[in-house]
Write a structure and sequence with these properties.
The protein is of the alpha/beta class. It has helices at about 15-20, 30-40, 60-65, 70-85, 110-125, 155-170, 180-205, 240-250, 255-270, 290-300, 315-320, 320-335, 350-355, 365-370, 375-390, 405-415, 430-449; strands at about 50-60, 90-95, 100-105, 130, 135, 140-145, 175-180, 205-215, 220-230, 235-240, 275-280, 310-315, 340-345, 360-365, 395-400, 415-420. The strands form 3 sheets. It has an 8-stranded mixed β-barrel, surrounded by 5 helices. Strands 2-3-1-6-7 form a 5-stranded mixed sheet, with helices on both faces. It has a two-stranded antiparallel ribbon with strand order 4-5. Helix 3 (about 60-65) crosses helix 4 (about 70-85).
């Protein structure tokens, strides 16, 4: 008798095929919806709780890109086999997306039990996978929701599980989150911000602000970092720490970044020609091979000299897709754009990245600068970074300087560039022009004396 792993049912007819994922043999999203629909119907008169969960593989795309799609398919088949083997006779697991699986636990009645079962699945999936003569490792994130009321539909339950998964992914890899009502309110707020941000980007309402970067020895301004600022008529001032991650996650970061860069370069054209403009790229932009073309098109449109532009990228951004990031970096440097590694010391990349990517500048993270006066390890780390950059021929800027004593200590260590509230907070284009006029007058007075 023919059997197919993953369904637990002998044989298949054409109807079965419509409910089966052809790669893994598990049920597909139609099978999963049908199973949950039936369970809700069975419990209509006595709505005893049950658990729905969605499991998403962390970091599958980079592994897929590294080993190839055939190896990626082999890994997915191994994942499916492990998940199916972990199910008891009552439970169901289906493949509902490229690297996303859904499970139904009819006999799991509590949030604690749902979390425990989910952690077990993550543990099962963490063992190495055979990929030819090599092995690969994966982690997974899980979001769960529990059925409590006959008013809940399959779609509502899965939407709640997806909301919980979203929170699990945001909090790191290998996490489990069970849906709560607080998450629903948070999800609604995120949706409101997303919709308002889309309107704001379309209407050109997000503005660049500029924070000075100075030569620490002379305190002369040598450039400005561009920072996005957004005030909504209904939401008020929305912090970038709120709207930037939402833009990143909801696919708005590209248009947002292009809008801010265009406005920033238009403003910076009137600055003295020896001042550079620094601009941040997000991790998702480093996997989009059109990023370089978009930047060059904006520079051509605004007439801004590429040699006056610095692009800042983070260690975390590099790790998302190193090959893609390297190509984008090379494309930008080829036309004279300088590339800076931001927030150094807090990300996940190795020192080898500094050799592979040939950065022009490194920015020391504020976490080290803030404790430079009273923490010996921070002092030694900064000294080591400065020595390393001198050997590699890289410029250095220390971020987050707020006290004169911090600036003096950095000068003593040989750090050339600095940035922070001590020298100026981020302000809009008009205020930046005022800042430059005041600086120019101050320089003239100093010369006269």
């Amino acid at each position: 008798m023919q059997t197919t792993f993953g369904t637990g049912q002998p044989g298949k007819d054409n109807t079965d095929l419509a409910f089966t994922d052809p790669l893994t043999g598990l049920g597909n999203h139609r099978r999963f919806f049908d199973k949950v629909d039936r369970l809700i119907s069975d419990r209509a008169d006595d709505p005893a709780p049950f658990t729905v969960g969605i499991l998403d593989l962390d970091g599958f795309k980079p592994i897929n890109d590294l080993f190839g799609h055939k190896a990626g398919d082999d890994i997915l088949i191994q994942v499916a086999m492990r998940l199916r083997a972990s199910m008891d006779g009552h439970s169901t697991v289906c493949r509902i997306g490229a690297d996303e699986f859904a499970f139904l636990y009819p006999m799991v009645f509590s949030e604690e039990q749902a979390a425990e079962k989910s952690r077990m699945l993550i543990e099962i999936l963490s063992a190495p996978y055979d990929v030819g003569e090599r092995t690969a490792r994966l982690s997974a994130s899980v979001g769960c929701s529990l059925f409590y009321s006959g008013d809940e539909t399959t779609e509502i339950l899965i939407n709640k599980a997806e909301t919980a998964l979203y929170h699990a992914k945001r909090s790191g890899r290998g996490r489990v989150v069970v849906y709560t009502r607080e998450m629903e309110e948070a999800a609604k707020r995120v949706t409101r911000i997303e919709q308002a941000l889309r309107r704001a980007v379309s209407a050109g309402e997000v503005e660049p602000h500029f924070q000075p970067i100075v030569d620490l020895s002379t305190r002369r301004t040598i450039g400005f970092e561009t920072l996005a600022r957004w005030s909504d008529r209904d939401l008020g001032m929305v912090p970038p720490s709120v709207f930037i991650p939402i833009a990143e996650e909801r696919g708005i970061i590209g248009p947002l970044s292009q809008l801010v860069l265009r406005k920033a370069t238009e403003a910076a054209r009137s600055w003295p020609k020896d001042l550079f403009l620094s601009f941040n790229l997000s991790p998702s932009q480093l996997v989009d091979q059109n990023t370089g073309l978009h930047i060059l098109a904006i520079l051509e449109r605004t007439g801004f000299d590429p040699h006056r532009l610095e692009i800042e990228i983070t260690e975390t951004g590099l790790m998302t897709d190193p090959a893609s990031a390297e190509k984008i970096v090379e494309d930008l440097r080829r036309v004279g754009i300088r590339v800076s590694l931001d927030d150094f010391g807090t990300g996940q990349s190795s020192l080898g990245r500094l050799r592979e990517f040939h950065f022009d500048k490194l920015k020391i993270d504020r976490a080290f600068v803030s404790s430079i006066l009273d923490d010996r390890p921070s002092e030694h780390i900064i000294r080591a970074i400065l020595a390393m950059c001198e050997g590699l021929g890289m410029d250095v800027v220390a971020e987050g300087i707020e006290e004169e004593a911090q600036a003096d200590r950095l000068v003593q260590f040989g750090c050339a560039g600095g940035q922070g509230y001590l020298f100026g907070k981020p302000v809009d284009a008009d205020a930046t022009l005022g800042y430059l006029r005041d600086s120019y007058r101050g320089a003239l007075r100093a010369k006269a004396i």
